[in-house]
């Protein structure tokens, strides 16, 4: 059982490292969103996808270890948390389990905050882009090769007298 606790702590440490990377990446993405560099944003998305993929695999490993530890301590998986593990595991592990859980929780909060800010930046950008598209789509003409509008003759609508 101590091996499983040790393995779980190793997974949590790896997750913390990934969350730190994701927080830093999200901060850098804020700068990219403000600058509006499409190529850099696309590359940033690829890096973010790779980090998230690694995080998903760690989460699966963590879930497996938590199931095993929950069974070993005769707890349901739903009630199993790192803090409860700290209470039940060997007392030598308790301080590290608690500190790692706190650190992980704080990093997730930071990431959530930065992600919400980035989402607002993206939403504003989309709103601005939609406004520009509306301006262009409501123009009553087409572009000439020189960039000026060429007037398109309007067509009078035909209405049925029987309607």
Explain the overall architecture:
The chain is mainly α. Strands 1-2 form a two-stranded antiparallel sheet. Helix 1 runs antiparallel to helix 2 and helix 1 runs parallel beside helix 4. The chain contains 4 helices and 2 strands. The protein is elongated and about 85 Å long. The model has no long low-confidence stretch (mean pLDDT 87). A hairpin with a 5-residue loop joins strand 1 and strand 2.
As a percent range, the share of strand residues is under 5%
Q: How confident overall, as mean pLDDT? A: 87
Total strands: 2
**Helix/strand/pairing class, anyone?**
mainly alpha
Radius of gyration: 27 Å
State the major sheet: 2 strands, antiparallel
How far from one another are the termini? 81 Å
Number of helices: 4
Helicity range: over 70%
pLDDT < 50 stretches: none
Sketch the topology as an H/E string, one letter per element.
Answer: HHHHEE
Sequence of strands across the biggest β-sheet: 1-2
How does the overall form come out from the CA principal axes? elongated
Short description:
This protein has 163 residues and is mainly alpha-helical. The chain is 74% helix and 4% strand.
Descriptive labels:
163 residues; mainly alpha; two-stranded antiparallel sheet; 4 helices; 2 strands
Secondary structure topology:
Layout: H1 2-35, H2 38-72, H3 82-88, H4 94-137, E1 141-143, E2 149-151
Antiparallel strand pairs: 1-2
Helix pairs in contact: 1-2, 1-4, 3-4
